[in-house]
Amino acid sequence: MMFIMIFSRRPQDIRSKASESTDNLPRFTAEFVSPKGKYKLSYDKNRWTYLIQPDETFGSRVTFNLSKEYGFARLDIIESESKKDLTSLTNEILNQPLSTPSKIESVLFQERPSYMVTYKERIIGEDTYYNKQIVKDNNDFFVFEKKAPNLGYDQQYLDNLLQGISFMSSHPQEVKGISNDSTELTTVQLFDLVRPSIANILYVYCLEIVNLQPQLSGFSRPQYNFCASAKGSGFIVNEKGIVATNGHVVKIYPEEGLITNLLYEGNKVFSTDLIKGIYLSKGQTPTQNQIEDFYREINLNPQYVDRFLTEIFRLIGNGVISVSASNEKYYVNIGNDPVNIDYQKMTQGDYIGAIIPSPTTFTAKLLDFDYPNKYSYDSIVNKSYRRGSDVALLQIVNSSNNLFPSLELGNIENLREGSEIVVAGYPTLVEGEQDPRAAINYKTSAKPSITRGIVSSVKEDLTGKRILQTDASIDHGNSGGPAFNSSGQVMGIATFAVESQTGNFNFLRDVIELKELMSKNKVDNLLDKLSRSWEMGLSEFRNQRFSGALKHFTEVEKLSPSHPTVKEFMKLSEEAITRGESLEASNSLLIIFGGISIASFILAGFFTVIPLFEKR
Fold it and tell me: What global pTM score does this model have?
């Protein structure tokens, strides 16, 4: 069996969202070798940057910082030598007069003994926490200082980054989750079939932050507004323009939007006002320098982010401020020309003028979605996590009489581990830039990328719903796309990934969740004349019956003028016919010449028999 799927969002936080790459695409994994050559660390240079700095005690330290697009996390690594045992070494490190630990645990790190030390840091009257892990490897020792906000989901990035470390005495680790099966022809045919049904989705929204109690907040303005955008993938499930995708692609909850856009330069006024409010809530009046220092520390120290987020949720929970989303707009592009976004206009609040659609970009409305708010006050502060699926439906609204080829929904009842899959989507990681120095031209961003792999496992989430694990590479920007079997049936929806240095571990929602949402909204999985004509045209084309293929492709173009690939196949069919390569013509000649031969044989026999009768 085989498959296909898809994902995306930008410029938002992509934690808990899905992933992508192909053999022909640039790889972003790099290997860092430590200054003293005691360890190597594999890391994603699109997500992490590093800095080597002097350290008074140990000589040097390496700091890895997570890109703000992904969240807030920092890892400091120190390497040195000591013949002391781990306990004596740890006591020596703890005796340094820098800070006092609040908790010490004995744990294993890659089967090596280590101590996990928790430190408490007080920031403007509130306690935050971070960890140091001290690891001994023969006479070498390592200190990993890990900082990430306690609120939110950033800690997993640190944990996953550390999975990529290997000590120089280590044996190479086995690479898991990689498949090498080659199904190139089937992949090409399958992609030809599904390409016109794969959609690139752009979601635009604005946030309104209202200062409900100025006397308590200390804010300088009654209201703050900013706009942002997110990208994703989807697919057509009904020829009348119904698009399926992930809920997180087309829905931003206000709290999530606030957190993920907080530190962009255009939102600095609100951020600095919030910092001022933190000081005022503790009975302190900050200077402008203190405010600027705090703002700078937010970008350097995740514990300051933690204090920042705590204050936001305190203000929301106490009714001091309210946050709401507004001006939500949806764009669906199914063509070969990309949508252009003027991010400067977007930050200025011109959410309409910021979008420059292509000729094949359609506006849409949100029909329905099933997607829990993981950033609500209850979820973040009270740890009252909400569960649900992650599916949504859009309706294209300005299509005139244009129809869209749709995909057939299948099921995973008989799906087995090891089934091959092909992934197609719009990863923003490789969409390129409108910069003359860019390696990838942004004009090609409307072309989906292809990866392939297998179904690694059929698992369940915490609600008991089935999810598919796959090693097919996916990335930020692919969210919401379909996963196909070899017949072109959708089996799942690409949704989230687990970051790992040793393989690809990505997950798809079961397509039955989409079917349930469609049933609720009385949406049929309609494959009508357009979809059938496209499929029959491709079948004729593959069998070199180009005249028959051209007939079907002409019908497709009539029903769907925005179809992204039909003109290309019409041109190829016409050229093949001109070269005399269409098998329909060969068969016709065979029939004609066959007819002549048989007629000649009968006629010759007739003239041979006549003289016999004459002689008699």
Answer: 0.72
3-state secondary structure 554-569: HHHHHHCCCCCCHHHH
Predicted local confidence at residue 502, as pLDDT = 53
pLDDT tens digits, 114-137: 999 998 888 887 888 888 999 998
Confidence category of residue 108, pLDDT binned at 50, 70, 90:
confident
The first and second tokens of residue 320, run together, are: 């001091």
User: 526 to each of 76, 243, 331, how far by Cα in Å?
Assistant: 54, 12, 22
| pLDDT (0 to 100) of residue 452 | 85
| Paired residues of 144 in beta bridges | 77, 133
Nearest Cα residue to 15 out of 497, 352, 418, 425: 497
- Of the candidates 254, 250, 154, 256, which has an alpha carbon nearest to the alpha carbon of residue 479? 250
For 192, 243, 249, 491, 575, the CA distances from 512, given in Å and listed in that order, are 25, 16, 19, 8, 43
- Please state, in angstroms and rounded to a whole number, the distance separating the CA atoms of residues 235 and 406: 8
CA distance 260 to 11: 9
Residue (of 160, 131, 152, 154) closest to 143 by Cα position: 131
Measure Cα distances from 342 to 8, 68, 306 in Å.
Answer: 18, 20, 31
| Residue type at 182 in one-letter notation | S
Phi/psi at 129 (5° precision): -135, 150
Q: Which residues contact 498 (CB under 8 A, 6 or more apart)?
A: 160, 505, 506, 507
